[in-house]
Amino acid sequence: MLRIVLYPHPTLSFEAQPIVRVDVKLKKLIDEMFELMYEFRGVGLAATQVDLPLRMFVINESGQKGCGEEQVFLNPVLSQPKGTEEAEEGCLSLPGVYAPVRRPKQVHIQAYDLKGREIKQTVDGFLSRVIQHEHDHLNGVMFIDRIPEANRLEIEEKIEEVEVQYEEERREGLVGDSAAIEKGRREWLKRYCGG
Ligand code: NI
């Protein structure tokens, strides 16, 4: 069973690795990611947020099961950023933390779906922002890393609350120690990234 990990879980700062094989289990993991995303009212979820060191994320702009379009992106590559736009963001790994983030307005995404079909899309607006936010996760980058130091002060207290929550989860044994986390990661990498 997957669970969403909280900041500063080490996998959130891990650089996820390209997926070289898709199997039934990976499809099940993706189903579970969608379920968690809906349960916690998100519109996107990256694999590193459920402690999987793999380059993939899921999105449903509507945030509601049975509505909108479910999109799975494997090994996404972003290019051709254009323009800038600022809008408020939040993150399921940082519950209660919201802040405006400046990002390119438009980007091009190249990726693969679960059937191995290539996805090539130029996106802007809300979808562009969600894709960039989730793609950042695969590089170990959180949205708070993109906030200028001066503005970070306002959310510092909320971030600390999440850190306290994370420590509690560790004490309760919901999160393993660093050796266990690393071992788990190695197993996933061996299975899906060819070692
Ligand atoms: Ni996030």
Question: What would you say this structure looks like, in words?
Answer:
- The mean pLDDT is 96.
- The protein has helices spanning 24-39, 125-138, 149-171, 178-192, and strands spanning 44-46, 56-59, 71-82, 85-89, 99-103, 106-112, 118-124.
- It is α+β, with helices and mostly antiparallel strands.
- The longest helix has 23 residues, at 149-171.
- A hairpin with a 5-residue loop joins β6 (106-112) and β7 (118-124).
- The strands form two sheets. Strands 1-2-3-6-7 form a five-stranded antiparallel beta sheet, sandwiched between helices. Strands 4-5 form a two-stranded antiparallel sheet.
- The two termini are 23 Å apart.
- It has four helices and seven strands.
- 35% of the residues lie in helices and 22% in strands.
- The chain binds nickel (II) ion.
- Nickel (II) ion binds at residues 91-93, 133, 137.
- The site of nickel (II) ion has 5 residues, from α2.
Task: Describe the structure concisely for a colleague.
With 195 residues, the protein is α+β, with helices and mostly antiparallel strands. The chain contains four helices and seven strands, in the order H-E-E-E-E-E-E-E-H-H-H.
Give the end-to-end Cα distance, rounded to a whole number of Å.
Answer: 23 Å
Q: What ligands does this structure carry?
A: nickel (II) ion
Give the rounded overall mean pLDDT: 96
| Strand element count | 7
Structural class: alpha+beta
In which range does the helix fraction lie?
Answer: 25-40%
Give the biggest beta sheet: 5 strands, antiparallel
Major beta sheet, strand line-up:
1-2-3-6-7
> Uncertain regions: pLDDT < 50 for 5+ in a row?
none
The proportion of strand residues reads 15-25%
